[in-house]
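User: quick one, fold this
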Amino acid sequence: MTGAGSGIGRGFAHALAQAGARVAVVDVSAQAAETVANEITEAGAEAIALTADVTSTDQVQKMVDTIIDHWGGLTIGVNNAGIAGWFDSETMPEAEWRKIMAVNLDGVFYCAQAEGRVMLEAGYGKIVNTASMSAHIANTPQNQAAYNTSKAGVLHLTRSLAAEWAPRGVRVNSISPGYTKTALVEQFINEPIGAEKFPHWMERTPMGKMAEVSDLVGALVYLASEASDFMTGQDMIIDGGYCVW
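Assistant:
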């Protein structure tokens, strides 16, 4: 589980642990990973903390190797690490474009590739990628072409891997959250730029509120379990109706 040190990833890690999974809590921050892993073990489940930068194939492979060494196998891979950024397209620096693509798209592929090698050899596995409702729409009023594009790439990567690996027992699906109440988002909407955008987001959301992280975890547990064994290449949008407009 990458990006598991905070926000949605933290909620996902706890949900899988509560459902009976052994969880590798992976984050670029060692302290954040340790904190969440300790929360899980204190609750009576099994977890380890790992540090990895998903834009490095060497670190991703080391992450998977460590999990295999520790538990002897890998059945579920949740590729959740991601970053966002608002930039006017005509002035967006190349370095910012590359950073968003490297984490959000390259990182998902590198993780799925390393996880897939193990699962394909075993003949079974579940990979769940975190996309976004912004993969489906040109999300406004903020300017975020790079983020939208990276998440749209995650959708098609998910479908492509699903089609390629389905005959060999590996299912690949994705979850597309809408605006979700995490500590980082709540901090942001209390700042002037976020406070300006928030009413627009809620006006566009038929349910009139942001998601709680708990609203997302049921989809993850389903996609990670045997209940979804005949499902692959699909995306579950959980956005309070935002994309129905």
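User: anything notable?
Assistant: The domain at 7-238 is CATH 3.40.50.720 (Rossmann fold).
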